[in-house]
Specification:
215 residues; 9 helices
Length: 215
């Protein structure tokens, strides 16, 4: 393996709380019930698909595409407002240390995220120019579990899919990695899905898998 493709939210940094607050604010305004259990279903899912889940049992489920796009934009603007408070302190020293170690070992590294705010988040936490490639919601038409986001990342890195390993915290992301014919490392919620090649508890456990590979 020559490259590692990381999901962003829940892997490199945790922005789940901001997503939840933004969706919750929209749902409350609409009078739609929304809780953390529903929010968990949105992990690794595109913004418009997430909106469909939020609205699925409400009278807003049959809104036009244009109306739904306005609601999705409203949620995203609220989310970006929350993101303005992020800074390099939101990046765990353990995560940064592991990333630096992998980079020193010669791995190429990329982001593979369905988020359209990936670059903003990376800038806020001090990793704006850190990765060799970024594939995100701005350059894909299909969200996970479709493999497009990871295949694009491999393309940007100039590597074949089988030369890449994906680190994911969502089941949909693991399925996308496997569909791309890449190896998969699962953490967080994805660690219990039994589909990945490896399960880890903490981000730095990646080193136990990948560092010995290169000696």
């Amino acid at each position: 393996m020559k490259a590692i493709i990381f999901d962003l939210d829940g892997v490199i940094v945790h922005t789940d709380t901001y997503h939840y607050k933004a969706w919750k604010k929209l749902a409350d305004r609409l009078g739609v019930y929304f809780d953390e259990k529903i929010n968990n279903r949105l992990r690794g899912v595109s913004r418009m698909e997430s909106l469909d889940i939020v609205l699925e049992n409400s009278g807003f489920a049959k809104l036009s595409i244009t109306e739904k796009e306005k609601l999705a934009t409203e949620k995203n603007e609220t989310y970006k407002d929350f993101l303005q408070a992020m800074n390099p302190a939101d990046l765990s020293p353990q995560v940064l240390g592991a990333l630096d170690c992998l980079k020193k070992r010669g791995y190429k590294m990329a982001i593979g995220s369905s988020s359209r705010n990936a670059r903003l988040i990376l800038e806020k936490i001090g990793l704006g120019d850190y990765f060799d490639a970024i594939s995100d919601g701005n350059n894909i038409t299909r969200s996970k579990p479709d493999p497009e986001v990871f295949l694009k990342a491999a393309e940007y890195l100039g590597l074949r899919p089988e030369e890449c390993v994906v680190v994911e915290d969502a089941k949909a992301g693991i399925e996308a990695a496997l569909a791309a014919k890449m190896k998969a490392i699962a953490m967080g919620d994805a660690a219990g899905c039994s589909r990945a090649d490896w399960d880890i508890e903490n981000f730095e456990d990646i080193l136990n898998i990948l560092v010995p590979v290169v000696g």
